[in-house]
Amino acid sequence: MSSGPYLHGHHASVLRSHSWRTVDNSCPHLLPHLNNPSLRILDAGCGPGTISVDLAARIPLGSVLAIDPSVEVIEKARRHAEEKGVTNVRFEVGDIFNWNAIEGIEEGGFDIVHAHQVLQHLQDPLCAMKEMKKLTRKGGIVAVRDCDFSAMNHYPPHEGMSKWLDLYRSTAKSIKCDPDIGKRLHAIAMQAGFLRDDIDVSVSAWTFSTPAERAWWCGLWAERSTKSDYKARVLESGLGTEEDLEEIARTWREMEGKEDGWFAVINGEVVAHNRV
């Protein structure tokens, strides 16, 4: 099994978003568990590696192995680690479904297996969760965070924003992905074999409201709508047209200019303790 098509691709507008992510702004649920400098962590679907490098810097006696199917982003991640001077992180091309092909990965070999905004892009997130559990030592944890697009919100109201959200969710579902998976991460963990009492569930949000935040968030979505692989997915699905996407891009630019603009991205989080 492979990870399947990635809805967004790796356009600059996508990587700009991913490269902004750190442990503090993207892994609040994981912070209490980074209390041992010798941890061994697997970061699955690491993208350009900013979270991976941040994790490695926090465990100087430990190590992070980070994997992603994209050769392009793995090279970017390696450069980022070099620029930061972090040497206890290793980046390899691969995915959670084919971990056997990656040197240094073995069952029960990690204290923490982490995945951020990954399960929503997989056709079989349950299988991925089972593999993550398999790679976690007894007493270790699987930490997963994904957004729930159905819970995203914005102000002021704009018809074009509703059109964007409907089209995005429909397109994701057309390739058998779940854009709303953040609300059921705990259920997937239970199906993967974790006991409910061993699963900690939390919610956190990204909020974009200042002029700088709006410019960044709206700008990258305006570009993503017309220049990334997402555009091709929309057109292939027949759910939208180029005109629809151009209209949505204009909507994002309009929202960027709203002085009272506000956006909330709701993220579901689980820390599943592997005690069985």
Automatic annotation (TrEMBL):
It comes from the Eukaryota. Keywords: Methyltransferase, Transferase. Pfam families: Methyltransf_31 (PF13847). CDD domains: AdoMet_MTases (cd02440). Gene3D superfamilies: Vaccinia Virus protein VP39. GO terms for molecular function: methyltransferase activity. Signal peptide: none annotated. The keyword Nucleotidyltransferase does not apply. Residues 37-176 form the Methyltransferase domain. GO terms for biological process: methylation. This is Methyltransferase UbiE.
